[in-house]
Design a protein that fits this description.
Length: 122
């Protein structure tokens, strides 16, 4: 697998401590891309699930203590393999940009331009 950011990123716990939903979308996207277990103090359900429907490890929490409890429960109750399987089962429906997908699309156009794309390849 070729990663957009060099080496394959290791998942981690991600905590969004802001209580307003402005100014951290890039960090949230990075957390989703990295398959982090995410807890947030603000309501980001729509943001998360519009990009990654069925994201298995996102929870809105009221306090940092609740987030820590959530992270500890994941660590205690699930193996790394179980977490990976949960992400693998959900990720097919995600709308995440992938360089692999983009490269396949471009190669398809370059190798078989057809009438729609032939003018672009001169």
């Amino acid at each position: 697998m070729v990663s957009d950011f060099g080496e394959v990123i290791s998942p981690a716990f991600g905590l969004i401590t802001d209580r307003f939903s402005v100014g951290f979308k890039l960090k949230l996207m990075q957390m989703i891309y990295s398959r982090d277990v995410i807890a947030s103090l603000c309501d980001l359900d729509e943001d998360v699930f519009s990009v990654a429907p069925g994201y298995p490890f996102f929870r809105r929490v009221g306090t940092v203590s609740e987030a820590v409890d959530y992270f500890q429960s994941i660590s205690k109750d699930l193996s790394a393999d179980a977490v990976d399987r949960s992400f693998a089962a959900a990720s097919d429906a995600w709308n995440i940009f992938s360089w692999d997908e983009m490269a396949r699309s471009l190669i398809g156009i370059l190798c078989n331009p057809g009438p729609r794309h032939s003018e672009c390849i001169r």
